[in-house]
TrEMBL record:
A GO CC term attached to the entry: beta-galactosidase complex
GO biological process, one term: galactose metabolic process
Keyword Transferase: no
Biological classification of the source: Bacteria, Bacillati, Bacillota, Clostridia, Lachnospirales
Domain Glycoside hydrolase family 42 N-terminal stretches: 11-380
Catalytic residues in the record: E149 (proton donor), E304 (nucleophile)
Top-level enzyme category: hydrolase
Native species: Anaerobium acetethylicum
PANTHER family linked: BETA-GALACTOSIDASE GANA
Name recorded for this polypeptide: Beta-galactosidase
Family: Belongs to the glycosyl hydrolase 42 family.
């Protein structure tokens, strides 16, 4: 997508202020002062845009778009399908969602509609077309914001019917479905597709193949809805790019399936800052940024973030001074071409009246929040050179939605906290501590171009993942696998024979058993003599939750268990295969184990780090590339300043100070010109 500037601004809901013309005027002045250059309009405007069926009232919106344009402010225009008007729900009850217990919802809330309903699709198609005709070539409009935070599922009769058709297209015969879902278990064999019902706590919830396919269907049905929304815009003449705003850690939809439907990925980030150490929040939020970036492996947009406190989390804490700047720059560091807030002006009533905003109820430009927003806008204004800059990464961690669905539903050695995301985060964090950009890709994505791939808790092998891994290692790649990997196929049927499936030779071991540990229980991982240099800092590491027992064939042990009946058995191992290397971590090791092992792995694979100095705990390093230069971001998420040995000669400072300590929540951005091009 071609932008002309880094976008700065956020959601703006002027329909809540139409009775206050002086406020609408004042808002534009505030935006200009805060260096805001973009707002998102119309996300929840349907009842104002179409107060009666077929009666379109777009004049107010046109006026606002024109006023913004005259003031140099661009518009991201939303389609309004995220919440529908009352008349629509009253006249066409089929648009309302049915929950898993088969109860139809009442009108209310938002995101409360069926994605299958032909009536809902038609009504959305009509209003999207009208919006496209009227505003699709307005020079202020730069991007379509399709609906809002797609999510949830519907179990209505229309959805059931669509699900059965989806299953029939996938399996062709009911015998094949029975085989793949293992339905002879508990005598649940189906005789026809017509008998199938979506999973329900009142009915079937133990056929894991059914549950998985239902989730895949929900993703596909949502994708189909998105496709129709965008098609309506295109058919009515607008070719402006389109995005959907994704959510933090949202499990319900496999976001990768939307990659090809949209022009740019965007997401909404609401980290709970100051809940414990800030750097832990920064790592977690950073990982989400990288997950979102890796969906298209392209620059993306931060669509929403809060400049102050939210109001929907258990406790809504104010952001300490400096966090607005830090979180905004963190987004840009990870590959975002925008910093956008929810919202510009705080709502007067209803459920978001206390949600933080750029302009609060006082209307003042002197508030602490406004001043921080203004300052962040000012410094982003100096970073235009970064626009469209790419993120290059030689390291990937596998983060796979379908695997997550399966592993959390599996009913295995731990149902209480199998901790997939946390396990992925340990690998991610260990690489990030080495000062590396990291991609988070799923099993369908290619491994080409990577030097190191880590697959934590890759329970389900799908999409020929094991074949890709084998070729990758054969040709010289470095692969890391953890416990509880390569166990089931893509309908959650256990592989028969040696596991990790298809990789027993690559890894040089065979799985035998896996032990679930009670909360609070630990075992130890003791480095072997041959690995003493790798684990120089410690004589033992602890592990918890899951301990896998394996028999090594060609691999050599790097650590052994310290306790219990499997004391002395391998707890980590290394194997050479083809031109490459394979590492295995048998248990849920503490972070320090990952940190020490991955330092060695990165050294061995000779992956170049962004900085050639030690990175203190709590410091994030990222790099983005343009043709002319590399931009390096160094962010300190500690509550104390940190000293870093950044070599002054090599770089020009874009933001922050040269040669001094980096203050708490402070950022240094510098630029290294590419040789031969300066
Ligand atoms: C979500 C929604 C917004 C708003 C914010 C509040 O991200 O998309 O409309 O409700 O939450 O944090
Ligand atoms: Zn439905």
């Amino acid at each position: 997508m071609d932008l002309t500037k880094l976008l700065y601004g956020g959601d703006y809901n002027p329909e809540q202020w139409l009775a206050y013309p002086e406020i609408l005027k004042e808002d534009i002045e505030c935006m200009k002062q805060a260096h805001i250059n973009t707002v998102t309009l119309g996300v929840f405007s349907w009842s104002v845009l179409e107060p009666e069926e077929g009666d379109f009232q777009f004049g107010w919106l046109e006026q606002i778009i024109d006023d913004l344009y005259e003031n140099g402010i661009s518009v991201i225009l939303a389609t309004p399908s995220g919440a529908r008007p009352k008349w629509l729900a009253d006249r066409y009850p089929e648009v309302l969602r049915v929950d898993e217990a088969r109860n139809r919802e009442l009108f209310g809330g938002r995101h409360n509609h069926c994605y299958t309903s032909p009536v809902y699709r038609e009504k959305v198609r009509i209003i999207n077309g009208e919006l496209s005709k009227r505003f699709g070539s307005h020079p202020a409009v730069i991007l379509w914001h399709i609906s809002n935070e797609y999510g949830g599922e519907c179990h209505c009769p229309l959805c059931q019917q669509a699900f059965r058709k989806w299953l029939e297209a996938k399996y062709r015969t009911i015998e094949e479905l029975n085989e793949r879902w293992c339905t002879t278990f508990w005598s649940h064999t189906y005789q026809s597709f017509e008998q199938i019902e979506s999973p329900s706590s009142r009915g079937e919830s133990m056929l894991h193949g059914l549950t998985l396919d239902w989730k895949r269907f929900v993703t596909d049905q949502t994708a189909d809805f998105i496709r129709e929304e965008i098609a309506a815009i295109r058919e009515a003449g607008s070719d402006k790019p389109a995005t959907i705003n994704l959510m933090y850690n949202y499990e319900g939809l496999n976001y990768h399936k939307f990659a090809d439907l949209i022009d740019v990925v965007s997401w909404d980030s609401y980290p709970t800052w100051h809940k414990g150490e800030e750097y832990l929040t920064a790592v977690d939020n950073g990982m989400q940024h990288d997950i979102m970036r890796s969906i298209k492996k392209k620059p993306y947009l931060l669509m929403e973030s809060c400049p102050s406190s939210t109001n929907w989390q258990g406790v809504s804490k104010l952001k300490r001074p400096g966090i607005v700047e830090a979180q905004g720059l963190q987004a840009v560091a990870h590959g975002s071409d925008s910093v956008l807030y929810f919202q510009i002006r705080q709502s007067r009533g209803a459920s978001e009246k206390f949600h933080g905003a750029v302009i609060d109820h006082t209307g003042s430009r002197e508030t602490r929040v406004f001043q921080e927003v203004k300052e962040t806008g000012r410094l982003l204004g100096n970073m235009g050179g970064l626009l469209g800059a790419s993120t290059e990464s030689e390291v990937a961690v596998i983060y796979d939605w379908e695997n997550r669905w399966a592993v959390e539903d599996a009913m295995g050695p731990r149902n209480k906290g199998v901790c997939y995301k946390e396990t992925v985060e340990k690998s991610y964090r260990a690489f990030r501590k080495q000062g590396l950009n990291v991609d988070l890709i799923d099993m369908e994505q290619s491994l080409e171009g990577y030097r190191i791939v880590a697959a934590p808790m890759a329970y389900m092998f799908r999409s020929d993942f094991e074949k890709k891994v084998k070729a990758f290692v054969e040709q010289g790649g470095t692969f890391v696998l953890t416990y509880w990997s390569g166990i089931v196929d893509d309908t959650d049927r256990c592989f028969l024979g040696a596991t990790p499936h298809g990789l027993a030779d690559v890894m040089g071991f065979r799985r035998k058993e896996i032990d679930g540990l009670y909360d609070g229980e630990t075992n130890a991982m003791l480095p072997t003599d041959r690995a003493a240099a790798v684990f120089a800092s410690r004589e033992r590491y602890s592990c918890q939750r899951l301990c896998e027992l394996v028999e090594l064939t060609t691999a050599v042990p790097l650590a052994v268990y310290g306790e219990d009946f499997y004391q002395g058995m391998p707890a980590a191992a290394f194997n050479r295969f083809g031109e490459g290397s394979a590492y295995y971590i048998a248990a849920d090791a503490e972070q320090a184990f990952y940190d020490d092992l991955y330092r060695h792995v990165v050294d061995e694979a000779q992956v170049e780090r962004i900085l050639d100095c030690r990175i203190p705990e709590g410091v994030e390093v990222n790099a983005r590339q343009t043709e002319e230069a590399e931009y390096v971001f160094v962010q300190n998420y500690n509550r104390e300043a940190v000293e870093m040995d950044l070599k002054d000669e090599d770089y020009e400072v874009v933001h922050g100070k040269k040669g001094t300590a980096i203050p708490p929540f402070g950022t240094v951005v510098f630029m290294r010109r590419k040789s031969g091009r300066a």
